Amino acid sequence: MAKRQVDLLQGTLDLLVLKSLALGPLHGLAVSNRIEQITKGTFKVKPGSLFPSLHRMEEAGWLQSSWGESENNRRAKFYRLTAAGRRQLDAETQDWQRISLAITTALKAT
Amino acid sequence: MDQEFSEEIQAYLDMLTEAKLRQGLSPQEARRNALVELGGVEQVEERVREIRMGRFIETVWRDVRTGVRALVHSPVFTVVTVLSLALGIGANTAIFSVVNGLLLRPLPYPESEQLVDVWHTPPQQSFPGLDRFSVSPANYLDWKAQSTAFEQIAVYTPTGLSLSTSNDPLPLIGAVVSADFFSVLRSNAILGRTFTPDEERPGRDQVVVIGHGLWQRAFGANSNIIGQTVTLNSRSFTVVGIMPAGFEFPREAELWVPLAWDDNERQVRSDHNYLVIARLKQNVSLQQAKAEMNTISSRLEQQYPEENTGWGAVVIPLREDLVGDIRTALLVLFCAVGFVLLIACANVANLMLARGANRRKEIAVRIALGAGRARLVRQLLTESVLLAVTGGLLGLLLAAWGSKMLVQLGSLPNSGEIGIDTWALGFTLLVSFGAGIIIGIVPALQFTRTSVSETLKQGSGRTGGSPIKQHTRKALVISEVALSLVLLIGAGLMIRSFWKLQNVNPGFDTGNALTMSIVLTPIRYAEPHQRLAFVDRAIEQIHAVPGVVSVGTTTKIPLTGGGSTQPFSIEGRPTGSIAEQPMAQTRYISPDYFRAIGIPLRQGRFFSDHDRDNSVPVVIISEAMARRFWPGENPIGKRLTPTFHIEQGAREIVGVVGDVKATGLDADASAMMYLPYRQAALPFISFVVRTSSNPESLVQPVSKAIYSIDKEQALTNVQTMDQVLRKSLSGQRFNMTLLLNFAGVALMLAAVGVYGVMNYTVTLRRRELGIRMALGAEKMDVLRLVLGQGLTLTLIGVGAGLISAYALTRLMASLLYGVTATDYLTFGSVSAVLIAVGLAASYIPARRATKVNPTIALRAE
Question: pTM for this structure?
Fold first, then answer.
């Protein structure tokens, strides 16, 4: 049971990270802040799950990373969506919408 | 990657801290909060690392699975490839295990790189070509006293020892060693002790240290043996120690007794009988030691000009000395197997290319679907590495068996050290990966370069291989031909030398003769008349054995290595110091020796029973000696004095006999003098028994006859003359057999290579051939066309091979006898063989080409 929950959360996290990068490259902390911002504070992503997610998706070819300067002139690693990442975001968004619709419908049913 | 991630996480932490600072927290609080939020740098790093590794392994695993599937799909290709690679890699591993055991691995003595042998260098006018010589007691003692380069220096001499048992005595190889011999080698007894300095004194020296193998074999590994006595050469010795397993120095020695020189022996300067081993001091180089020994030698030359003029010294690392001549042979063989593997790789690469023709569509589809080129190359390489590693594992089995064969075939020294160990395993793995990449990279790069649309557009029937690929295939075949030519020429040269050696006349009759040796110990045979009595009775007893035609004795059987040499002076000619006197090999023989061994008389007479200690001292010389010292003169009646028998005065030359190859078939016949054993009875006796039938059947009765006189003296080297001859050629036979085998495999692989590429060419040119035939070309024209192409490939390969062989074979010059390394006959005939094989290999595809039916070939489009 616990495993399924983690899986689900992981999938969700990946989707949120992809979404947060949809507008442009961000470094780790900015991704975390963006997620907090776009979910209106519902999710606060800790580095312990953020970095594994970023690296996993980079390995999968959805993200690309490079070193750059942060807004405060600090060296930071920026992540950017690849073409494959963009396709993945679309696919996952559709999936999520189907699932969430189905679950919402299911929960409303009497 | 770890480093980079650490930086990344550090940057994150800094930025988070800054953000907290902006929220109004104090620097310490901000830092602490940030760290808490991070939740442990280590854990985060660990998880990221896991993800990265996991991905990598998963991709490799997926490639491996795809590869296995692809290979299982084409079983014939897979089996052929794996087998040829197994052959190539296995041969390499086998040779490597020998090279490693003999040349690379440290000797089984602590800090063995500091161990050196110290030899005399003899005066060149007396010993032309000899670069090292054993040492005399007095010179050794001076070296020991005057040298400072060595931490320790010891002296020893190998010796045969007879261990008395309840049955026949056991012949053993042992060594007489000075007390510090064991500490030079830094080896100690596992049970009991080694020798103490006072055991170097005559009278105290009846103690023995026993080797591990002998202890187990003859004494049942009983530890109570320490303190007990055993009988060696009729003398009783107390066992004081057992050496650990693997301690076997000098070669094959199984027991050691102390070297005890009395005061007279310590003065002897011209009797060279001992070997010297030393351990260099930590900070002393080999060069320094050599320089010091040179200084000492020239001092000794001035001090003792009579005995030491011309005698130098040389310091040689122990390993170099032990391995000796094998080194060149092993390196040549290593090159040869390397070539075999390269040829096998070229063949497999060609097979992969041919197979790739069928897979091009699959690959093109995958490229079209978005697979990256690097990813595809990786996939294809995984496949070829998979093939090579499977071949390598199979080759390992082959090598385990092969290295045993090699040790046996070559009777190699230090054989306990040779086998498949971690090093050989690592080598195999490395070679397998290397081979996998070599055979995979060319095809992989080519397939992925193919134009996608072109390939997809093509129907499956039309196989228009791109011109580049044909070039690659041809280049591969040409190099195969070239490499195998080099191997074939190497093998050809070895065969020619071997053939020449086998046809060398040894100077005596090698058929139907039995030989055996015995050393008469001073305990029972101190007096010459005792030795003479033994020899006379032994000859009598052996004569009585049915089947024996004649019996003779000498002091050294020809071709069994070494033999004693001594200076002599010729009456009526100026006599210089000993060091300036000419030298001749010397043998002490019974009257019937020449008849028994079959050495022909050229002039004068043989010895007779009348040549005794109270008759005129006589000598018989060899033709080479007669030619060298009495050119154009009749030596019969001339007189000479062998220096070791100076007290008997000048000897009259009564006969001249044919030359024999005393030290080896490849050596020049040396000056040789024979003395009658009745005038100089030495304790070293070798019997030559001429038999009327197979000499092997007489081993038992003849041994029995000798043991009936004395059952405490063990017979050694009991072998037929034919075995002696074979043994003396074993090194050359070993090299020749191996090279021949490698060359054979290479030739086969090259033939397969030529066949494969020509066959493929015919397939590609079917249409063109069809058109030609439709336009009226005869079958002969087509045959000639295809054969011509095959011949061109072969000729280019042969040309390249000849050039490489010309450069490479001189490396093996020292292994050859009677042929030069660039022997044109070998170069020519081997090239002819290879060209013939190339033509034969192209003939089958050419025949197929003539069967092309123009209508079908044209319609197939």
Answer: 0.71
